């Protein structure tokens, strides 16, 4: 899956918390959102233009729901419940565990969350 396909897929499934998401879909989405957010934040801080800073905030809010949705779908892809996303609230250990799971390859074949997206 290319970066444009991944972004398109996540935006198409904006608030879809069911189904499965491939590793590439999750990581390309995360990369794109991080780069855009970093650019907007840096420009906003360096230029002291309130509009740019506001755009960074709006962008972060606009990408929150699809980011959570693709994270849940990624957990579904490895056979985990979307509720495991809350483990991120546990300092350090939660983030490490989520990263390990997000880097893991898809479960082969169908699972309880749907067919393999590969």
What does this 3D model show about the protein?
Helices cover 62% and strands 0% of the residues. With 118 residues, it is an all-alpha fold. The protein has one domain. It is globular and about 50 Å long.
Give a count of the beta strands, DSSP E runs of length 2 or more: 0
What would you call the structural class?
mainly alpha
Query: What number of structural domains do the residues give?
Result: 1
The helix content is: 55-70%
SSE order: HHHHH
- Rg, rounded, reads 16 Å
Determine the N-to-C terminus distance: 9 Å
- The helix count comes to 5
Gross morphology: globular
Percentage beta strand: under 5%
The average pLDDT is: 90
Largest sheet: none
Query: Low-confidence segments, ≥5 residues, pLDDT <50?
Result: none
Which key features would you list for this structure?
mainly alpha, 118 residues, 5 helices
Please give a quick description of this structure.
This protein has 118 residues and is mainly alpha-helical.
Record the SSE blueprint.
Elements lengths: L2 H10 L10 H25 L2 H13 L1 H14 L15 H11 L15
């Amino acid at each position: 899956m290319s970066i444009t396909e991944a972004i398109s897929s996540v935006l198409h499934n904006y608030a879809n918390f069911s189904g499965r998401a491939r590793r590439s879909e999750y990581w390309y989405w995360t990369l794109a959102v991080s780069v855009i957010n970093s650019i907007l934040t840096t420009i906003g801080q360096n230029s002291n233009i309130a509009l740019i800073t506001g755009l960074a905030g709006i962008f972060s809010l606009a990408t929150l729901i699809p980011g959570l949705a693709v994270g849940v779908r990624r957990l579904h892809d490895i056979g985990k419940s979307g509720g495991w996303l809350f483990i991120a609230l546990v300092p350090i250990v939660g983030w490490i565990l989520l990263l390990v799971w997000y880097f893991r390859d898809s479960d082969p074949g169908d699972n309880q969350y749907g067919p393999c997206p590969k």
